[in-house]
Design goal:
The chain crosses the membrane at residues 63-80, 86-109. The protein is built from 7 helices and 17 strands. It has helices spanning 10-19, 60-78, 87-109, 181-192, 208-217, 236-242, 248-251, and strands at 2-5, 25-26, 43-46, 50-54, 114-118, 123-126, 135-138, 143-150, 156-163, 171-173, 226-227, 262-263, 273-276, 290-295, 300-304, 310-313, 320-328.
Length: 330
């Protein structure tokens, strides 16, 4: 019997920090996207194809205008003559005027600073700094992490960010309706997993039926990214239909799995044979237990017995070892 850790351990979070990027997975259930946030200061658009988020960089010209203006106003009230009385004060005054003019010019010429998630294409577009051009990458190839900034409380604010996979000096902060970086990443991953239902929130409700019919026409392919929370369909009827192909139980992580390991998939492992496990002493079913199959070629596949103690296991022609998994809390 093998013991594994329930959900994500602190050690895994430390390892993610040390390796310099976060895994693309749904680690927590993200806050709902409410319809009142659309066309507001957060979202320009949110449907089953595209999400457009207004980056906080859009407000950057305000600082370039307000800060130098207030300093110049303060210096003027202290004494307008002193603003040009010496070479040093002249340079300071001209520098502040230059920043003020730059801020005004930037305010009227600022390019769109949008973060664009395209669900079908699997791409993420982020804005560049000031007038610089942003970049578009495959979402699955982005290197996601967090950057620390000074918060209003004096504590470190951890902001979600992404780096270009090929040019590590290229990067951008990411924003949304959530401030916690891990929860925001969970929202991004959930939305960008085109094989799962849309994330929570009434903003997506008008598009759930269309999204369901698309996935149905595609044969309900399995999820693209790992999840530690269920991602249910909008209605019990849709859930029942989808579960003929894959279930939330099957694709919701209950513990940390080895990288590269998978869950049993009846569409893929259609040659596996049904077996029932009974406790030797009582002859009662070994119900609802997780099972780990380890193959000689390095593959690891997990499964779970049902209420009757039954599951499908590899055919005898395969060389494998089977272990029952015991879940422990961290």
């Amino acid at each position: 019997m093998e013991k594994v850790t329930f959900l994500k351990s602190k050690w895994k979070r430390i390892k993610e920090f040390l390796k310099g990027h976060l895994d693309l997975e749904i680690s927590v259930k993200p806050s709902a996207v409410k319809s009142k946030l659309i066309n507001n200061k957060i979202f320009k658009k949110a449907d089953d194809c595209t999400v457009i988020i207004i980056s906080d960089a859009q407000s950057s010209p305000q600082g370039l205008i307000i800060v130098p203006f207030l300093i110049l106003l303060f210096l003027f009230f202290l004494g307008p003559d002193d603003m040009f009385s010496s070479l040093g004060s002249l340079f300071i005054t001209l520098g502040l005027f230059s920043l003020l003019i730059l801020g005004i010019i930037y305010y009227f010429t600022i390019p769109s600073k949008d973060i664009i998630l395209k669900r079908y294409q699997g791409t993420l577009s982020v804005p560049g700094f000031m007038w610089k051009k942003g970049f578009t990458i495959e979402f699955s190839k982005g290197r996601f992490g967090w950057v620390g900034t000074g918060g209003s409380s004096g504590n470190l604010d951890m902001v979600l960010a992404v780096k270009h996979p090929d040019y590590l000096l290229k990067g951008a902060k990411l924003y949304g309706h959530i401030t916690k970086f891990d929860e925001l990443l969970s929202f991004y991953v959930w939305y960008m997993d085109r094989n799962r239902p849309l994330p929570p929130g009434d903003a997506f409700d008008p598009y759930r039926e269309r999204d369901f019919l698309r996935r149905k026409a595609e044969g309900f392919p399995p999820p693209l990214y790992k999840s530690y929370v269920p991602t249910p369909e909008a209605t019990p009827e849709q859930q029942k239909e989808r579960e003929q192909y894959w279930t939330d139980e099957q694709y919701t992580e209950k513990f940390e799995r080895e990288e590269g390991s998978t869950w049993y998939d009846p569409q893929i492992h259609n040659d596996w044979e049904e077996t029932t496990y009974l406790k030797p002493e009582t002859k009662t079913p070994v119900a609802n237990r997780y099972v780990k199959f380890i193959f000689n070629d390095g593959r690891i596949i997990y499964s779970q017995t049902n209420e009757d103690g039954s599951l499908y296991e590899p055919p005898e022609s395969e060389d494998f070892e089977m272990l029952f998994v015991s879940i422990k809390k961290p």
